[in-house]
Specification:
heterodimer; A: alpha+beta; Rossmann fold; 2 domains; six-stranded mixed sheet; B: 287 residues; MetI-like fold; 12 helices; 69% helix
Chain lengths: 375, 287
């Protein structure tokens, strides 16, 4: 068992004579037993980070600790980590049983110990029937279960999972996702999980580390990422459907500060506690972020209403999406399953002003998050 | 798409191709036929004018004579045939094993300078045998290997390393790196990964390399004639040449001997060619 600490970690590759920064100044603490997802679009540096923790890539700068132990110069064999790969990486010339036993075999574990651990893994992963088969003839889900078995049998300090579900079809993906969640609960080991799929990250992780452009953008629980995004990228990347981002103006009126649509008679009063900061910074235009889940059709106390009309109504079953026009802006809202809206229907979208996000157009930082955290 | 079916026009292409193939086969097989036919004739029957006639009666005498008969001061080819076996088998196995290990390191453990070392190794393939004969003999003399079977084996192993390394390197390059990474994480070291993962996966590669090496070592004449001067050590290619005596040539025995000499490589190819093709292609299929 072990925590993992990354301190100012860098990774640079030389590719065709050019220096490419894959990871820049990344610091992250993963607690013992914690489940952390590295989330980001492809090429953001998440896999490089995982591979540096595994010892498969050299660390160009900074330090990685496993517990108190500096592991920078340790080989993968010496780090006591186990890994599941995107493409399973099973040994096709060995049976499922021998694949799972391979790590013990490579470390010359006594026979009885091997059998004892195998039995435990087989039960945990429900793979008794396929033990004698070749990995070649298994479905993707089965192959990834075998690969997880090969990781678990090691009883490693840390599990590293590199997009383990990305090649599975949807039903297998959901089943295996639940299984991974259960394994984490049973094994209580540190897990680091790389994915580009926010749904996976949200359903699995204790904390999510969002990466983009080789940098760590924000680390936090799913609620933190949704409610207190650090910047425009995180706000836009996290959340389904995606946050509505509107370029609105800051307007002073009767001693209050309003965000006003440039194309419609719609405005939202900025909460009083934020006003001063915005005025001090002399911002005239900002990006207003509104989560589709924060909009509703029924007025609640303190709400502001935005008049709009429905463009497209998406009936999805459990929740439905209404894509509306507010002036020239397109605003998506989530409505419950009992509500059906017609195209062109006039609606008023209600929101509590405290729920809006305000982003600085230049720095792309989230001003409202900064102010909420300061408060 | 319309459902109207139209008669496929008769293509001249395939007919021309088959005709050409047939002609080429005949051209290539004719000498083999003459060789076989002559080998089955008796000495009296062999003459230029009757070259194309089939033998009157089947006689395997020439084969027996070529194999074991004492003949113009030579022993039969049987000794030399076994010399070839003792030469080819170890040289093939050792050069394949070395090529496999070289290829493994070059493909999967990139080290500083690998990109210089590998082309230099390959350069060995492009050095003509003839150009290095004198230094070769001197080196073998200094190593006290000149004139021995060991010396000849050694030379074939060294000359085989470039091609075996190349084939194995390319074969291993097609095996996903993730497989190696998985086994590193699973706790296997550089030798463990080779023995437990790469080696079992490279049997098709071994078939390709071994057919290649077996054929070229078995058929080699130049190194053998330079290095082994003692008739009792000479492989079959050299002995076959000596069979053509200085006074008269017994064509039937000569032809029988040539067939005996060609038989092993022929058998190897007939029985292993399936694996040869699949081995060449195996690398392209992900493991």
């Amino acid at each position: 068992m072990s925590s993992i600490t990354l301190k100012h970690v860098n990774k640079t590759y030389i590719s065709e004579g050019k220096r490419v920064e894959a990871v820049r100044d990344l610091s992250l603490e993963i607690k013992d037993g914690e489940f952390v997802c590295l989330l980001g679009p492809s090429g953001c540096g998440k896999t490089s980070t995982l591979r540096m923790i595994a010892g498969l890539e050299d660390i160009s700068g900074g330090e990685i600790f496993s517990g108190e132990r500096l592991v920078n110069n340790l080989s993968p064999q010496e780090r006591n980590v186990a890994m599941a790969f995107e493409t399973y990486s099973l040994y096709t010339h060995l049976s499922v049983r021998d694949n799972i036993l391979f790590p013990l075999h490579a470390r010359k574990t006594p026979k009885e110990e091997m059998q004892r651990r195998l039995a435990a893994v087989v039960e945990m992963l429900d793979i008794a029937e396929i033990l004698d088969r070749s990995p070649r003839n298994l479905s993707g889900g089965q192959q990834q279960r075998v690969s997880l078995g090969r990781a678990i049998i090691r009883e490693p300090d840390v599990f590293l999972l590199d997009e383990p579900l990305s090649h599975l079809d949807i039903s297998q993906r959901i089943a295996l996702r639940a299984r991974i969640k259960r394994l984490h609960a049973e094994l209580k080991r540190t897990m680091v999980y790389v994915t580009h799929d926010q749904e996976e990250a949200i359903s699995l992780a204790d904390r999510i580390a969002v990466m983009q452009f080789a940098e760590l953008q924000q680390v936090g629980t799913r609620e933190e990422l949704l409610d207190l995004p650090a910047n425009l990228f995180v706000a836009d990347f996290i959340g389904e459907p995606a946050i509505n981002l509107l370029k609105w103006n800051c307007v002073k009126k009767d001693g209050h500060l309003f965000l006003r649509s440039p194309s419609a008679n719609a405005e939202i009063q900025v909460p009083e506690s934020w006003k001063e900061h915005l005025l001090e910074n002399g911002l005239e235009k900002v990006t207003l972020g509104i989560r589709p889940h924060d909009l509703h059709l029924v007025r609640e106390p303190g709400d502001t209403g935005l008049a709009g009309s429905v463009n497209v109504f998406e009936f999805l079953g459990e929740t439905n999406y209404a894509h509306c026009s507010v002036g020239s802006d397109n605003v998506t809202m989530v409505v419950d399953t009992h509500t059906t809206l017609r195209r062109k229907e006039e609606v008023i979208l209600f929101i509590r002003p405290e729920r809006i996000h305000i982003f600085d157009d230049k720095t792309e930082k989230c001003i409202s998050t900064f102010l909420k955290r300061r408060a | 798409m319309t459902t109207a079916s139209h008669r496929r026009p008769l293509h001249a292409g395939p007919i021309v191709i088959y005709a050409l193939l047939l002609i080429a086969s005949v051209v290539y097989l004719t000498p083999v036929l003459v060789q076989l036919v002559t080998g089955l004739k008796s000495f009296q029957e062999v003459s230029l004018s009757r070259m194309w006639q089939l033998p009157k009666s089947l006689s395997f005498e020439s084969f027996a004579k070529a194999w074991s008969g004492a003949y113009q001061g030579l022993t039969g080819l049987s000794v030399n045939f076994m010399n070839s076996v003792y030469l080819t088998v170890p040289a093939t196995l050792i050069s394949a094993a070395l090529g496999s290990m070289n290829g493994y390191v070059l493909a999967k453990w990139k080290f500083r300078g690998a990109n210089i070392l590998f082309p230099m190794l390959l350069f060995g393939m492009f050095i003509p045998y003839q150009s290095i004969l004198i230094p070769l003999v001197r080196v073998l003399q200094d190593m006290h290997l000149y004139g021995t079977r060991g010396g000849l084996i050694f030379v074939h192993i060294v000359y085989g390393i470039p091609i075996t390394t190349l084939i194995f390197r390319n074969y291993y390059a097609a095996i996903p790196d993730e497989l190696i990474e998985a086994s590193k994480i699973d706790g296997a070291g550089i030798l463990g990964i080779y023995a437990l993962i790469l080696f079992p996966l490279s049997l098709p590669g071994f078939v390709v390399v071994m057919i290649w090496q077996f054929t070229s070592i078995w058929n080699d004449f130049l190194f053998a004639v330079i290095i082994t001067s003692k008739p009792s050590l000479q492989p079959i290619t050299v002995a076959l040449n000596n069979l053509a005596g200085s006074f008269s040539v017994e064509w039937n025995v000569q032809m029988a001997g040539a067939l005996i000499a060609a038989l092993p490589t022929l058998l190897v190819y007939i029985f292993l060619s399936r694996y040869f093709m699949s081995g060449l292609l195996a690398g392209s299929v992900k493991g």
